[in-house]
Amino acid sequence: MITDFSQGKVWKNIVSQAVPLTLAQFVQLLYNVVDRIYIGHLPGTGHLALTGVGLTFPVVTLIAAFTNLFGTGGVPLFSIARGRQEKERAEKIMGNVFSLLAGTAVFLSVFCYLFQKPVLYLFGAGEGSYPYAAAYLGIYLAGTVFSMLATGLNGFINAQGYPGIGMLTTVIGAVCNLILDPVFIFLFGMGVRGAALATVLSQMVSAVWVLHFLTGKKALIRLKKKCLRPEGKLVREIAGLGAAGFIVQATNALTQIVCNVTLKAYGGELYVGIMTVLNSVREVLSLPVMGITSGSQPILGYNYGAKQIARVKEGIRFTALIGVFYTMAAWAAVMLFPRFLFSVFTSDPSMVENGKTALQIYFFGFCFMAFQFAGQSTFQALGYAGRSIFFSLFRKVIIVVPLTVLLPLAGFGVNGVFLAEPVSNVVGGLACFTTMWLTVYRKLENK
Fold first, then answer.
1. Which of helix, strand or coil describes residue 384?
2. Which of 295, 287, 285, 301 is nearest to 319 (CA)?
3. Which range of residues forms the domain containing residue 293?
4. Average pLDDT, the chain
5. Cα gap 259→421, rounded to integer Å
6. Which of 167, 253, 266, 390 is the most buried (most CB within 10 A)?
7. Which residue has the higher pLDDT, 360 or 72?
């Protein structure tokens, strides 16, 4: 168990955090991906069931955005406080994050229940897909508090040097989901409702596991009742640093909405379903590079707090290089096996035939995503929230959203929607990493 990140080889410390964290994130992803796989192969529903679930993505993403606002905002502050041996401050950070996550979860659930129908139609639903979307979302929202607590607090387990325990948080829940999904979907004949119910119950199990550990004797820093009352100054620090993670997810939701509406206009509900599969493939293939960058953050933050600048720079270099190598391999796999990757998520022939080309366009230049991840994680780990926020906005709001609207108008049709992603990867990724390299990495000696 590694708790002092200023000791040992930097790359080993990062890998020791990243490997179990990547596995945990993969298992976490199974909550939704397995649902989509089962739903995509439901007999008699064609593409409509998968399209309906895809229409709920912006809502699910917004929930993840608020989870990131407090979770990814609190964990780096927590790591820096640990590096400075400020235990009381670390306890307050974790307690405040718990309260913020729980309160926000209740608010989001109530709001989404009240405005479910107009919201789904705004997001691109049609008469064929709306019943499936409403059936899934109506049950999924019941698990919001469990989802936000499990995901938002799990980072505090990893930041204390227990990545294996953090991995078990999602392994346990995902195993439950894998077992319950076919039971509810097929055996009980609940369809998309069964998928949502399995997810909610699984999230509940994960949340109980996280809270049990953080309040137990094994935790180096425990979740304490006296620290749950939000403190204004601390909340602003948490939200300020977590704003980058929030904007990443919030702008993802905005992009999903614009994509769905544009695809429905130019290609119909079939292409909304195709985008559901593209998002699923991207989430799976992005996991390893996300795991490396997420795993590097506690290491970079701890060493930054401990003033071990050479180790911080070494960690940044390692994170960037391994990310680029992996994303190049993933890009090659998509170019070579598009039909296979698409057919994993659906057995609908029209979706597979039209989707394989869309997949190749969407993933063109995927390796440039690694630069975005490396730059973003470095800004966040070292407390440069403003820069991280800017590049989140730059890539999604300034590049992707306008191109998603303009390229189809320019004659590219539905392919214009898919083409917006690789353009943003190249421009946004290089801009983010170059700025980080010139304004942070090269100036670390001065700290």
1. coil
2. 295
3. 10-446
4. 89
5. 11
6. 167
7. 360
CA–CA separation, 248 and 220 (whole Å) = 30
CA dihedral 65, 33, 255, 50 (to 10 degrees): -130
Q: Does 184 map to a domain?
A: yes
The length of the chain, given as a count of residues = 447
pLDDT level of residue 1 (50, 70, 90 thresholds): very low
Measuring CA to CA, which residue among 359, 180, 177 is closest to residue 280?
A: 359
pTM of the model: 0.77
Q: Does residue 154 contact residue 223 with C-beta atoms inside 8 Å? A: no
C-alpha closest to that of 392 among 292, 253, 237, 235: 253
φ and ψ at residue 83, rounded to 5 degrees: -60, -30
Cα–Cα distance measured from residue 192 to residue 138, given in angstroms and rounded to the nearest whole number: 10
Give per-residue burial for 359-379: e unless 16+ CB within 10 Å, then b. Answer: bebbbbebbbbbbbbbbbbbb
Specify the residue for token string 């990243």.
18
State the number of CA atoms in the 13 A half-sphere of 344 facing the CB.
Answer: 15
Q: Model confidence over 377-395: pLDDT tens digits?
A: 999 888 887 788 788 889 8
What are the residues whose beta carbons fall under 8 Å from the beta carbon of 265, sequence distance 6 or more? none
Digit-coded pLDDT (tens) for 108-150: 999 999 999 999 998 888 888 899 999 999 999 999 999 999 9
Phi, psi dihedral angles at 348 (to 5 degrees):
-70, 115
364: left (phi over 0), alpha (psi -120 to 50) or beta: beta
- Number of domains making up the chain: 1
Q: Is the dihedral of CA 303, 308, 312, 314 positive or negative?
A: negative
Q: Evaluate whether residue 394 is within a structural domain.
A: yes
Contacts 24+ apart (CB under 8 A), 315-322: 315/10, 315/11, 315/13, 315/14, 316/374, 316/378, 316/436, 316/441, 318/10, 318/11, 318/14, 319/14, 319/292, 319/293, 319/374, 319/377, 319/378, 320/370, 320/371, 320/374, 320/433, 322/292
- 285 three-state secondary structure: helix
Q: Is residue 352 part of a domain?
A: yes
Q: Is residue 5 part of a domain?
A: no
